[in-house]
Amino acid sequence: MKKDIIISGVGGQGILTISAVLDTAALESGFNIKQSEVHGMSQRGGAVQAHVRISDKPVYSDLIPMGKADLILSVEPMELLRYLPYLHKNGFLVTDSNPLKNIANYPNEQELSKQITAFKHYRIIDAKSLAKKAGNFRAANIVMIGAVSDLLPFEDELMEQVITNLFKRKGDRIVQMNIDAYRLGRGAIEK
Amino acid sequence: MQKILLGNEAIAQAAINAGLSGAYGYPGTPSTEIIEYITNSKEARNGDIIAHWSTNEKVAMEEALGMSYAGKRALVTMKHVGLNVAADAFINTAISGINGGLVVVVADDPSQHSSQNEQDSRFYGKFAMVPTLEPSSQQEAYDMISYAFDLSEKTKLPVLLRSVTRLSHSRANVRIGEKKNQNNLQLLEDTKRFALIPSFAKIQYKNLIEKQKELEKIATDSNWNHFQKGTGNKKLGIIASGIAINYLLENFPEALPFDLLKISHYPLPKKLVAEIFDRNDKILVLEDGYPFIEEMIGDFLGRSQKVIGRLTGDIPRTGELNPNIVAHALDLEDLIEEEILPIVSNRPPQLCPGCGHIDLYDALNDIIAEIGDNRVFSDIGCYSLGVLEPYDAIDTLIDMGASIPMAKGAADAGLLPSIAVIGDSTFTHSGMTGLLSAIWSKTPITVIISDNSAVAMTGAQPSAAMGRLYDIAKGLGVEEAHLKVITPLKKYHDQNVEIIKNELDFQGVSLIIAQRPCVTMSNEKKDLARKFNTLETSY
């Protein structure tokens, strides 16, 4: 078992929370993990990404080799395409459909969607709406975890346990909202 | 016990477990999380370990040395350029030697993700002639820290541990060991070696030179360095230092056909290098940083070309390594350019919506339109982003604290008015002495401290300047008539422009504190800042 996943988005969108959920699930499953992430200047509204590498064998490089990512999981559609050089030819592209336009020259959205749908394996999820349905649009990152849950080497039960533990400190209501967000994301896969 | 830790967190946890008594540092990407982790530990919260941010890296190094002088184990952390600030203390600590174990962790930033340069701290280790460690993984970073403290006490020298961005800011499974007890307070009977007057210092310097043989012997026998024979029959040997070995093994997860010398402990052991050198026709050196080893063992005149790496163009001269670069150097793959589709726009970091720096730059830009461009000297922090569009309000950024002396020098040259923009924490880090120099020489400059009451760029660590800026400026000699306080908010825009303009006309040193807490801070931190920020504005 080996999964190389790039998680992308804009600083402040909860990239590190997604990574933390995947890392913890991997640790619980007895896998080896390396997860490189971005701190510092780029976290101020800039493009950010994390490389998550999970394997039952030793993981050497902290960075995913180019052309080897099994999945690019993005919480922002343009940021999804930034990391294409890392995608394996049979890899998956999965993104939230909602753009974050904090720059003046944000591309045409239809063009963007055309580029994404030209790939063999892609999913475009309206995570923001699903997160709102769960209780807060900020849970879009957790929706996105659900939306790739079938591509991950973890059972739903474990994922929900990890999410519960992660948000436990914030109280039952926040835990339930994030569980709901995960389930709504998972439900979006079949559609 | 196994945990998932950032490289920085592994270093921090290892230091706590190694019987640490004091941890000091100044925030800087990619080093910040080490001190943050220790200050949040139960050992620090209940007072068993002293851990806090110091006003700058040199102060941190000296505080750590004081802790070591008293017999206890001390850790000091910083980013690579921070070691330039701390260099005086660092180099001379190698001369005096230490008492309690002293470990200096410096995080380098190959590829300059968050830095002005990609200087390689191993040169400082060699320069100071102290043992230097370069972990290749988070686990090794954890294991090396306890070893580093022991080595420091054994050799009576500070030990430098060099990390890099991709180790410090990458998480991995780390096995955590047991916690050791701290050292007791233990003064030396003879403290002469800490008093570096020339007559004592000459003896110490000779001692340090004499120690070098022993340090090399320790590195030769060190478990962190090792040689393994290749499974193939190619006459190519590879020397890989620190995390570079991972990018090599990524390409050969099962068996490596080449001879390999892993280097993670310096001084570079001649015996080990000679062994791989003599067995092979070519030596490829892989280093995530400068061509440090390559330069040492290569042919200066370039006649033999036996040693290849960054200097010979087999590896790109700048930037961090990755699996593809290493594969290309071994003729396994073409070099893949990271081509990004044209539809993807650049998304640079930017000032947060509502940030006080924005309102300051709006005011400043109105004035620049009148007085002319290219006269605003600035500094390092979030406000550095003011060099980019849409602000384009500041012109320089060189190092921590350069803004005020550069404004002074330019004013000396006749550039008037001349303006410095500096953050609150950068001001107490390295700005105060520059201000005093300008006051002392009565040079007409206007200094604006953009005070957000935090070290914001690295995650809003507390700023030592909080509540003290006015008194510091006044104490250094800024006349109160030209010491102003403004609130950078849109509604005060016209008044702020007026105040700054008036001070630009003053033929002496004027100082304006533009004060508004960082918008990203938690309410708790903002409330604390408001408690300290009691200055009346100058409207």
Structural account:
The complex is a heterodimer of chains A (191) and B (539). In chain A, helix 4 (127-134) packs across helix 5 (140-146), helix 4 (127-134) packs antiparallel against helix 7 and helix 5 (140-146) crosses helix 7 (172-190). Chain A is globular and about 40 Å long. Chain A has seven helices and six strands. Chain A has 191 residues and is an alpha/beta fold. Chain A has one domain (2-99, 109-190): Pyruvate-ferredoxin Oxidoreductase, domain 3, CATH 3.40.920. Chain B has 539 residues and is an alpha/beta fold. Chain B folds into three domains: 2-221, Rossmann fold; 226-329, Rossmann fold; 356-532, Thiamin diphosphate (ThDP)-binding fold, Pyr/PP domains (Rossmann fold, 3-Layer(aba) Sandwich), CATH 3.40.50.970. Chain B is built from 19 helices and 19 strands. In chain B, helix 10 packs across helix 13 (323-329), helix 14 packs across helix 18 (493-505) and helix 15 (403-412) packs parallel to helix 16 (424-440). Chain B starts with a strand and ends in a 7-residue tail after the last helix. The mean pLDDT of chain B is 96. Chains A and B meet through helix 1, strand 2, helix 2 and helix 3 of A and strand 1, strand 8, helix 10 and helix 13 of B. Strand 2 (32-36) of chain A pairs antiparallel with strand 8 (170-175) of chain B, so a sheet runs across the interface.
